[in-house]
Design goal:
Strand order of the largest sheet: 4-1-3-2-5
Strand content: 25-35%
CATH class: Alpha Beta
Distance between the termini: 24 Å
Oligomer: single chain
Number of domains: 1
CATH architecture: 2-Layer Sandwich
Order of helices and strands: EHEEHEEHH
Number of helices: 4
CATH topology: Alpha-Beta Plaits
Largest sheet: 5 strands, mixed
Radius of gyration: 14 Å
Number of strands: 5
Length: about 140
């Protein structure tokens, strides 16, 4: 089965607490497992950046559902391409809250989020491609 990787970013409508983020993660885990979707969600300063991996048609339907979620706005796809392998194969949904500044690769991840917000590249790569490379290494 071929898979795609979809990366999007959005803005939270309010500051998310650790409990809010935990609830989002738990709901995503229970929804994504049966859909064969894996990925990771990053939160920083009111912004979400999420990587979803799975069948292209499944991701398209899932993204439509995500867009309707009232907890965020201004959602936009940064990357949606076929992939030869999953970057996050072990996680139906991982969550990294960069607001707590304890995350592994913190500086790199904040740079990716800031570049995505400003619609600028990091070197010659898009923020989404840079994010995927961080976790492939």
């Amino acid at each position: 089965m071929s898979i795609n990787q979809l990366v999007y970013m959005s803005q939270a409508v309010r500051k998310m607490s650790p409990d809010d983020l935990s609830a989002i993660q738990e709901k995503a885990k229970s929804n994504n497992g049966p859909l064969d979707v894996t990925g990771s969600l990053f939160y920083n300063g009111g912004w979400f950046l999420q990587v979803l991996e799975g069948p292209a048609s499944t991701l398209a339907e899932l993204y439509k559902k995500i867009e309707r979620d009232p907890r965020h706005k201004n959602s936009r796809i940064l990357y949606n391409e076929p992939a030869s392998f999953r970057t996050f194969p072990r996680w139906n949904m991982n969550m990294t809250n960069l607001d707590d500044r304890q995350a592994d690769k913190y500086d790199q991840l904040v740079e990716v989020l800031e570049a995505a917000q400003a619609n600028r590249k990091i070197g010659s790569a898009s923020p989404a491609v840079t994010l995927l490379k961080i976790f492939k290494s």
